[in-house]
Amino acid sequence: MFESLPQGIKISIARSITTSFEQYMNQIEWDETAYSTSEFIQYWRKYSEEHASWFNKVNEEMRITPSFHKELTDKINELIEKVLSTAPTKEQMDKIDELVKELVIEDVDYCCKAEAKYVINKLTMEIEKKKITNPTATERQMRYASILYYQAFDKELPDDEYSFEKIQEIIDVAQKELQAQKHTLVVEKNMPLQ
């Protein structure tokens, strides 16, 4: 029954299965313990009804027959196996390594190309979120901090890309050090000579 369908409809069905499976897995954050076959089937059915071109092209009589359901179940299992067995690309693995280093986190697990795509998106969003909540210091702030740091500690501020928060911390420490040095100079100046 499934095999008798036009090629375009079979492709649309296959695409709806793989797309909805990847979306469902992303929704549950690729947590295998959270996976539910019945939930996925409901998710796929809703996706197919709302987004897949094949759904309205296959008559309802055919869609409700047990043999069509059996063939669809086989196709679903075949395509899920294909998604899970497609290895991540070298580019994906390199990108994940780069993002893990940038976030200074432990290595993350992923088993297939689709999950690697999810991990890349998730880590990239974490980096973007970090940039928004912890923006880098401006050039002007960096210059000011460098001058204060040099005056306070008589050495250059290490060359690095500092967050706004970190630069403010450096400025505060340098100002406190300069205040302490000023106080020491005042005390030494006012000390009676003996």
UniProtKB/TrEMBL annotation:
<protein>
    <submittedName>
        <fullName>Uncharacterized protein</fullName>
    </submittedName>
</protein>
